[in-house]
Amino acid sequence: MNIKAQIPNLFTMLNLFSGCVALVMITDLRFDLAFYFVCLGIFFDFFDGFFARKFNVAGPLGVQLDSLADMVTSGVVPGYVMFKLLSNNDAFGTQSYLPYLGFIITLGACYRLAKFNIDERQSDSFIGLPTPANALFFSSLPLINIAFYDDNFSGVIYNKWFLVILTLISAYVMNAEIPLFSLKIKNFSFAKYKLQISFLAVSILVLIFLQILAIPLIIILYVLLSVADNYFHITKKQ
């Protein structure tokens, strides 16, 4: 057995394990631990690809395992978070089926992961919001409410229409034909990577000052900057 070939798969399995634990934490309403395990899963997800490229052992099995693991950590988990948020909303009765709308996030993630596997345009950048970023967005929402709790803020975070609209937007943005700029910086050239470097610098500052609240803001900023960058390049060509 080629040990090197199995190292990326080990990290993929750790990603999947982290997602499974996150689901248990959500069931117990331990949203803080669920968020940390999502972060851990995304960390493992990064390194499975890193080691596959480093050891030159990337193959079809690893691609499929990666998507299956992401389906749990970055697909089922955020959908389950939204299900729990909607279930805890007083506006819904105990017999309401509306909380199941939260799993539209899971369906959107599944469709995006399947498209990603056959889309050759996304080798260096993304088209549509990546599922790990989407998972971070939704798994951070309960923590924001805890960290910045007040009646007005809580009313927004747990408003039923706000949550349903976020769910629908999420499924759309993951699968929309929106090119997102790559965060891969191959050499430190500010002229070539000024957008990426500026975005990362702003993200670090926002994280320092706003902490958990920075997570969804950074993801929203990433999408908006990408849209603006695309518009600028289209306008420039005309």
Can you walk through the features of this model?
Helix content is 74%, strand content 2%. The chain is built from 9 helices and 2 strands. A two-stranded antiparallel sheet has the order 1-2. Helix 2 runs antiparallel to helix 3 (60-87). The longest helix has 28 residues, at 60-87. The protein is globular and about 50 Å long. It starts with a helix and ends with a helix. The mean pLDDT is 85.
Task: Supply the key terms.
238 residues, mainly alpha, Four Helix Bundle (Hemerythrin (Met), subunit A), 2 domains, 9 helices, 2% strand, globular
Measured between the Cα atoms of the first and last residue, the distance is 55 Å
Mean pLDDT metric? 85
What value does the Rg take, in angstroms? 19 Å
Structural class: mainly alpha
Low-confidence stretches: none
List strands and helices in order, with pairings.
Layout: H1 3-27, H2 31-54, H3 60-87, H4 104-118, E1 126-127, H5 131-147, H6 151-157, H7 160-175, E2 179-180, H8 190-210, H9 214-237
In brief:
With 238 residues, the chain is mainly alpha-helical. The chain has 2 domains: 3-180, Up-down Bundle (Four Helix Bundle (Hemerythrin (Met), subunit A)), CATH 1.20.120.1760; 182-238, no CATH class.
